[in-house]
Amino acid sequence: MRRHSRARWVSALVAVTRSILVIARHRRHLDPTIRDLVRQLQAVGHQVALTPASA
Hints:
- This protein is mostly helical and 55 residues long.
- The chain has helices at 3-28, 32-43.
- The protein is rod-shaped.
- The model has no long low-confidence stretch (mean pLDDT 80).
């Protein structure tokens, strides 16, 4: 593999990895209000599964 070709491949890999990390971090940080409401429902014995609304 040529040096410039390898550099492009590494750059692409880094970009994809960064995108995945940004998505994972975004999903982990729910709106505090939503997180509190989910915890309140779980505290009184409900199971909660949130799914995104379809557009």
